[in-house]
Amino acid sequence: MNVEYINPFIKSTINALSTMAFVNPQRSKLYIKTDFEQTSDISGTIGLAGEATGFVTINFPEKIALTIVSNMLGEQMKNITPVVKDAVGEIANMIAGGAKGELIEKGYSFKISLPVVSIGKNHYTNYAKENPCIVIPFIIPEGEFTVDVVLSRTVNIA
Amino acid sequence: MKFIVIDDSSTMRRIICNTLERLGYDDVIEAENGLEALGKLRDIDVIFTDWNMPEMDGLTFVKSVRASQSFSTIPIIMITTESGKPDIIEALEAGVNNYIVKPFTPEILREKIEKVLRK
Ligand SMILES: [Mg+2]
Fold first, then answer.
1. How many CB atoms lie within 10 A of CB A49?
2. Cβ-based neighbour number of residue A88 at 10 Å
3. What are the residue boundaries of the structural domains of chain B, listed by start?
């Protein structure tokens, strides 16, 4: 399996969260998602479309989302409000945009969609499962969160 | 000095406005997309705009500003998650004066703002 496209997402996730939210996520072992009914408290998804297509989703337990957004805004978030949703969408945006800049150099070219933020439901209903969904787990002192990536070249670069 | 901060993310608008405020600039208005911003450019000295937004994206907005009669010379700083070289070149060619990639530290944001304002 070719996972050369995963590293840029790992880097951009760490970069986004350490720069904007002052946390230092440690990555643990990648795996392929098989349980698509899985839910998370809040998640932000960016669609990727072009010569390469797919999506990237960041999934947070509520506690971690609140910690991260509180750090970003310098203000205590107590529950999932529209402000928290917006911030999670913008984090997803930074992860996708950061990876995009590096992936174009590796021959993966795509545009990024506007963020879609979901609360507590399955986000994968429309996902064509012939491409692997790679899960990158991250750990911070408050717990664990994941970034899911699906990406495939739809046009062969001859 | 009057600024406009254009971004579809309220979080980003807040972070950018807070930084401007800390620099002593409190005359700042906001818009959620390029289209809304086009109607708010009177008396604006510096524009901060995102790229990816609904209604009208930042690149289209920059081109409209540069093609306009009254606003074509306002300095524009683009603040975006788009980090690819081809994207940065495209934005500069469209007339962006300075380009900041998200995520940014408050220091970087401050530095770039000060650089533009000194000119
Ligand atoms: Mg945006």
1. 13
2. 27
3. 3-118
> Which ipTM did the prediction report?
0.91
For tokens 């507590």, what's the residue? Answer: A120
* pLDDT tens readout for residues B58-114: 999 999 999 999 999 999 999 999 998 899 999 999 999 999 999 998 888 888 888
Numbered residues of chain A with Cβ closer than 8 Å to any chain B Cβ: 15-16, 19-20, 69, 72-74, 82-83, 86-87, 89-90, 93-94, 96-98, 100-102, 104, 112, 114
- Topology of B3-118 in CATH? Rossmann fold (3.40.50)
pTM of the model: 0.92
Which residues of chain B are within 8 Å of residue A58 when distances are taken between CB atoms? none
- CA-to-CA dists, residue A55 to A35, A64, A89, A158, angstroms: 17, 22, 13, 24
